[in-house]
Specification:
Two copies of one chain form a homodimer. The first copy, chain A, is of the alpha/beta class and about 350 residues long. Chain A has three domains: about 1-65, Orthogonal Bundle (434 Repressor (Amino-terminal Domain)); about 75-180 and about 315-340, 3-Layer(aba) Sandwich (Rossmann fold); about 180-310, Rossmann fold. Chain A has eleven helices and twelve strands. In chain A, α8 (about 210-225) links the parallel β6 (about 200-205) and β7 (about 235). In chain A, α7 runs parallel beside α8 and α9 (about 240-255) packs across α10. The radius of gyration of chain A is 27 Å and the shape is elongated. Chains A and B meet through α3, α4, α5, β2 and α6 of A and α3, α4, α5, β2 and α6 of B. The first copy, chain A, binds a DNA duplex (16 and 16 nucleotides) through α2 and α4.
Chain lengths: ~350, ~350
DNA sequence: CTGTTAGCGCCTTCAC
DNA sequence: GTGAAGGCGCTAACAG
């Protein structure tokens, strides 16, 4: 076509076609590269005529700014890191979607780092932030690692904006987006108590987990509000996985004195637990009521369908992304956002009988 | 501490601390920046002494190369885009983990693009590849959009390496990593037939989907191998979601002549369908056997537990990432990789009675 | 084996 | 309102 710039004529053979640069656009629009840049970033500072010519040239060439160059120059990557403990946990998927759609609309990309339960993988976080590959991060794992404790061998890094989602990070002065776990757990406990259950077991999350601590407090709150005593023997350890629910169920089956209701702090555990109970010939909810937490997709189609606490997962993701973007763009943000949960009553819980 | 480079002393007040650059390392190690660069990229071409000094300087300063600068210069981003139709589908989570761990080990980051069923979101793909934000992509959605049909208004883009995972892309000359859907579906069908089932219903995926087409062929293969006639009335439309399984179940319940077995081409559909059947008072597997496909986590704890086809999801992800990395680094790759599936026999299927 | 040099493409002063 | 010019940090090319 035209021969500006592309001096070499070996274009046919070179597999690497060079993308349109700002120079090409500038030449075509007969302005300087600075004007092209301004027409994009601050259109109001460019004359309407010049702007029109630039826009036309961009449309004609399909010009897209090179993000690496832009990054290098502006020290921004337009990338956000999302750190989560377990990608294969269904609880996170809808949250991720909420995050992703919000980020995308704002022009940000999402990089996912799955910690996979192995602390070694925290290197991910460190590597990405240290190298300045992301502008900010959303933390779903309740930790604040990679803190770059400013010492020998530590890259003296710019602290990037962070947002904690779901799992509050105690002591960290960063925005928190979450639900009121304690209140929700209390509510479920009281719901069970209100149906006449006096022996209510509690299947916990990992002890170190902040969610667990909140929900456990809520469980005790609920017992107290209902005038029921707290019995440590009815606290069964779990870790939110299906397998731990299965294990908890096995322990329950083996007992002499069984609870009449079990409050599992995740739906996966509740489903695993119900499975074990049913396999052992116990009926749910006739013999034992089972409640969950989260309201994942499978809760509604479990057999029996699961009474649980609904979390607005998509909205949680959206809120976290919105706050982070505000932070990145220097807008004021709220330090804490709490979204509402809902008690969803289905078939796995019945009056104590 | 020491004052090389950092001439300004306003460090206390400036919130943006500049990260260590290659120059700082070079100065400290008393070599040129080129040597530092080489010590990292091609250590064998640097004298052991120089290398040692460089490494020491890096350790001392915590130097991490600036990826934007590296990208700009080398035209590589060390980022891979993963395009998938639905992030909240549990089927993908373990695949993603397989991809992520493999990419990370090779120094690549993973950007996720969730199409969310909306074709408009294909802009994602276009935007990322057009801007050169990624070196390659793994496609889990069976499409090859963003083809940049080289016309007016289209950025004349470098075609980046692509790999198709799970859903083969017909006509595209890119590596395919998948299972043998047809053979697996045939095997399940024959398994059902071998238990005496003569009226076997089939709950399909979306008609346009390549997986669906393969599995449907496999279903017919299986019927034929078992000497059973194919009856279009026993093909029930679905789209792999729980909801479509529920809907399929409702249709089934309403029928006069019911099948004795139902083969659902996804576990979610099978679980949704079982739920509906059970709610309607039918027993699984006594009245109707139900089989799934995928072997997601919940298959084992469904009630009854689900007979299904196991897919090596993590391995699929790993294989795709490995192939893409090979491609990116110019190594020869296999054009097609097929991983083995397994028939998992559980409680949702029983002999025809 | 090593250093020097020249950009990668963009944005952003600084002049006009 | 616009253009010229410098430099973000790195690596590839070329000398030595």
């Amino acid at each position: 076509m035209d021969d500006l710039g592309q001096s070499d004529s070996a274009e046919r053979e070179d597999p690497r076609i060079r993308a349109t640069r700002i120079q090409d656009v500038a030449k075509l629009a007969d302005v300087s590269t600075a004007t092209v840049s301004r027409a994009l970033a601050t259109p109001e500072r460019v004359s309407p005529e010049a702007r029109a010519r630039v826009l036309e040239a961009i449309a004609k060439t399909g010009y897209v700014p090179n993000p690496a160059a832009r990054s290098l120059r502006s020290q921004k990557t337009f990338m956000v890191l999302v750190v989560l403990p377990d990608l294969s946990n269904t609880f996170f998927s809808k949250i991720l979607r909420g995050i992703e759609e919000t980020l995308f609309d704002a022009g940000y990309g999402m990089i996912i780092s799955d910690l996979d339960g192995s602390p070694a993988k925290e290197a991910h976080f460190a590597a990405f932030t240290a190298a300045g590959r992301v502008d900010g991060a959303i933390l779903l794992n309740g930790h604040l690692f990679g803190q770059s404790r400013e010492g020998e061998g530590q890259p003296a890094r710019i602290a990037i904006p962070l947002v904690a989602l779901c799992e509050a990070i105690p002591g960290a002065d960063i925005p928190q987006i979450e639900i009121d776990n304690r209140a929700a757990a209390s509510r479920m406990t009281q719901h069970l108590a209100s149906l006449g259950h006096r022996r209510i077991a509690y299947v916990s999350g990992p002890a170190s987990n902040i969610l667990e601590r909140e929900r456990f407090l809520g469980f005790k709150d609920g017992l107290e509000a209902a005038g029921l005593p707290f019995d440590p023997a009815f606290v069964i350890p779990g870790d939110y996985t299906i397998e731990s629910g299965v294990a908890a169920g096995q322990g329950l089956v083996a007992r002499k004195t069984r609870p009449t209701a079990v409050f599992c702090t995740s739906d996966e555990m509740a489903i695993g637990l119900m499975r074990t109970l049913l396999s052992a010939g116990l009926r749910v909810p006739e013999d034992i009521s089972v409640a969950g937490f989260d309201d994942i997709e499978f809760a509604a189609v479990a057999e029996p369908s699961l009474t649980t606490i609904h979390q607005p997962r998509r909205e949680l993701g959206q809120a976290a992304a919105t706050v982070l973007i505000d932070l990145l763009q220097g807008r004021p943000t709220r330090k804490q956002i709490r979204l509402e949960t809902e008690l969803v009553i289905r078939d796995s819980v019945a009056p104590a009988g």
